[in-house]
Every structure is written in C-alpha cells, then in structure tokens.
Design brief:
The chain is of the alpha/beta class. 30% of the residues lie in helices and 25% in strands. Strands 1, 2, 3, 4, 5, 6 and 19 form a 7-stranded mixed beta sheet that branches. A 5-stranded parallel beta sheet has the order 8-15-9-10-11. A 5-stranded antiparallel beta sheet has the order 20-21-24-23-22, with helices on both faces. The mean pLDDT is 96.
Length: 459
C-alpha cells in the first residue's frame, strides 16, 4: 500500500513525486516513456538547446557588429542534434536522481486504473498490481493532428514536434502549419540555420493569445529575416510535400517543403488508462466533448483522493504550470492549505529575440471590462540592452489598473526577457501597485531596469 500513486513522470508528476517523497509519503510513479515527460524529452529542453545553437550561430555571423571578426562561420547539423540529445540525456538522469533521492519508487510501463476498493485505488502495470490511498493524474498531452485531407498519405514528410527533433538532415524548405509558440520557435531555429520557412496560420496573428503588439513586432522581425507568413489562411489539403490553403480572399494557394510541421496545438491525454473505472468528471470544450480532467483550485477531481495536474487538465498547458499544480496537489494531500492561481502564469517564446508576458493583455482587459492605463518603452531605454543588442528591437509594455494602480500585465519583446519576467510575476501575484514596485531597487546596468523605467511613465 502506497500513500500516493502518480501516473506520468513529466514536470507535474516528477515534481509532485519529489515533494511528496521529501515529506515522508510513500510514492510510486509510473512513466511509460522517459522520465521528464514531453517537456524534457520532446519539448521545452530539446527545443531550447537547438535554439541556443542557432543563437550562437547568429552571433558568430553578425559578430562584426560588435567589433569581432568570425570568418566563415558555419555549423554541423548532426552535431547540433547530437548536442541536443546529450543535454536531454543528462537532464533525464538528473530527474531520475532527484526522484530516487526522494525515495520514490519508479515503474517504467503503461499504468492502468483497475478501480477503487476499500483499501484504496488499484492500478496495474506490467502484470503487477499497486494500491494507493491517493492518485495523482499527470498523463500530459499529445500533439493535435487535424484530419486534413492527404495528411496521412504524405507519410514521413509530415512531422510533429516529436519527429522534427529527431531529423538527421536539415530540410532546405520547411512549411509550418500553425503560428503558435511551438511553430514560431521552430521557425526561429530553422530560419537561423538557413532553411526557407513558411508559416501558415488560420488566425490573423501569430502567437495566439499573446499581446497583439508584441506578436506583430516579432512577425515583422522574422519577416525581415526571410520567414514567409500566410495569415488568415485555412489549410484545405496536403498533396505530397505541398500544403494547399485558401488565402483571405478565398484564392487556392500552394506552398511546398521538404518537411511539413503540423503544430496546431495539443490535446490532453484522458483515454487509455482506465479513468472510466473511477467516474472522473471531465472538462468539456465548446462542442461538448471531453478535453481534460475537471479539477478545483486544490487540484481535486470529483472523486475523493483523486487529483490531477498538468496538461491532462486541458487548461494551462505549460511545464511550470504543471509543476506548481503538482505542488498544490501534494500540499492538499498533506493537509496543508494551498490553492492554484492562474493570474500570474508567465508565457515565454524562445525566439531570437525572446517574447515574454504575464497577466492581462490589452484585449483581455477590454473583454473583461477592466479599465487600465497602458504604458510602454522601447528596450533601448536600457543601457545594458543597447550594449548587448546591436540594432536589436524590443519593447516593454505594462498594464496598470486605473482605480488602484496595481500591475495587471507585463509584456516584453527583447533578450533576455525570459530571465526577467518573473519580477512581473511576483508583482502581479502580490498585487503590487506601481508605487510599491517603483521602490524596489533594480541592479544597474541590467535589462530588467526597463520594467522600472516603464513604470515611471505612468501618469
């Protein structure tokens, strides 16, 4: 008998396992693939490793802008991929070591829920049964592959985030269906190393829910770099290595590539592991179909002692959200008061330049009827940014509540905004006012000072 069984070893599952084990709970963790889940093996870490190689190559090619000569800068695609694999392997080992140090029992295999009895919840995996008092679902998500005519027939020309990370040869031309975060990060990487990239997006903007102005700026930067954007375009079919789509006027257009990356979102993994045996309530999409496990702010499902965290909830599909949700679940299992809050979850796009945002966007504030003041400054107001980003473009935008002058949202474009957005997260989480944040001392010279400088433009 275990205190806790966890299905899924991604950022929600392994973090929860470590926290639970450290507090003395007996834990068994099931993972059918590799520890670390999609984030570590097929998402966050491998893509960032590739993007950093691309950034180094960008710096080498444009080193003369900084008074440095790098003649004949080049790259080896196979070595870039090999380094990515090395980084992932090292970090998977680190996760395994962390879980082991917390005295968590790990089982590699596909766990399935058998049902609930007087003693607890029973699961089976690889022919063995396991019983636990509590169950935490962290089964993650998978890439959505839409039913586009001709897609299946295109064979290995079609790739998702999983397959594109394993390419052994650089495609000369790449078509990306979907201009969201994943699509733009791969567009950034392949554009930097010389692949001709075309992004086909159904919406009128890239990066979906992120700030409109920031998204438009990033699109302009990458358009100058050679990426072709086809917005408001609906994909109607795949013909071999060619994407067929309708432009905003209804004209049928075609674009071809050596590979076609399908990146139109992710779907919660809610089937195939016996959830129906417990009667867990599902979150429904607009069409009335199940799209995730329904939870409350303590990460509890409708079934006592059954919790869920991460992408399986179908809500905020981000690794850092999953980890915090896992912590909330464990704290409630331990009897500690804790609840999940989503008002200060940061979103980051690791393009070059980076994009980061937290809190409300202008369009979200307007939709909710929240009156706010919007202030912004170019990143060039930061001396450190000017020193390190020759000809770099950037922007810092802050939304401030009109009534209480609290910080409602912060959105940035420019390196290294991924490393400083947490300051805004803290401000929003703590409901800080502009005046309170102005009193915080920021180190000089740093790019982070741009946040404080922007606040001083609030009237």
């Amino acid at each position: 008998m275990y205190d806790l069984a966890i299905i899924g070893g991604g950022p929600g599952g392994y973090v929860a396992a470590e926290r639970a084990g450290a507090q003395g709970l007996s834990v068994v963790l099931f993972e059918k693939r590799e520890m670390g889940g999609v984030c570590l093996n097929e998402g966050c870490i491998p893509t960032k490793t590739l993007l950093y190689s691309a950034k180094v190559f960008d710096y080498a090619r444009h080193a003369d802008q900084y008074g440095v000569s790098v003649d004949g800068a080049s790259f080896d695609f196979s070595k870039i991929i090999a380094r990515k694999d090395k980084v992932v392997k090292k970090l998977v080992g680190g996760v395994k070591a962390g879980v082991k140090a917390a005295r968590v029992e790990t089982v590699k295999g596909e766990a399935c829920i058998k049902g609930r009895g007087a003693d607890g919840i029973t699961l089976t995996c690889e022919g063995n049964d396991y019983t636990a008092r509590n169950l935490l679902l962290c089964t993650g998500s998978e890439a959505v592959v839409p039913p586009i005519p001709g897609l299946k027939e295109a064979g290995d020309v079609i790739v998702t985030n999983r397959e594109i990370l394993s390419l052994q040869e650089q495609p000369k031309e790449l078509v990306i269906i979907g201009g969201g975060v994943i699509g733009m990060e791969f567009a950034s990487f392949f554009n930097s190393i010389g692949t001709k990239v075309t992004v086909v997006e159904m919406l009128p903007k890239i990066l979906g829910p992120m700030d409109d102005e920031i998204s438009t700026m990033l699109q302009g930067i990458y358009a100058k770099k050679g990426v072709t954007f086809c917005l408001r375009c609906k994909v109607t079919g795949i013909e071999g290595n060619t994407v067929v789509y309708e432009d905003p006027e209804g004209k049928v257009c075609r674009v071809s590539g050596d590979k076609i990356l399908v990146s139109v979102g992710r779907r919660a993994n809610i089937a195939g592991f016996g959830l129906e045996t417990l009667g867990v309530e599902m979150l429904l999409n607009r069409g009335g179909k199940p799209c995730g496990v329904k939870v409350d702010e303590q990460m509890r499902t409708n079934i006592p002692n059954v919790y869920a965290a991460g992408d399986v909830t179908g809500f905020s599909m981000l690794a850092h959200t999953a980890s915090r949700e896992g912590e909330v679940a464990i704290n409630n299992i331990l009897g500690k008061k804790d609840r999940m809050r989503y008002n200060a979850i940061p979103g980051v796009v690791y393009t070059n330049p980076e994009v980061a945002g937290v809190g409300l966007t202008e369009s979200e504030a307007a939709a909710k009827g929240i009156e706010c003041t919007v202030v912004k400054l170019p990143m060039a107001y930061s001396g450190r940014f000017v020193a390190e980003n020759e000809r770099g473009e950037g922007l810092c935008k802050v939304l401030v509540g009109k009534k209480y002058h609290e910080v409602l949202g912060v959105h940035m474009l420019g390196n290294p905004c991924s490393e400083m957005i947490h300051s805004a997260c803290i401000a929003i989480e703590q409901e800080m006012t502009v005046e309170q944040l102005k009193e915080v001392v920021f180190p000089h010279p740093t790019v982070s000072e741009i946040l404080k400088e922007t606040l001083f433009t609030v009237k």
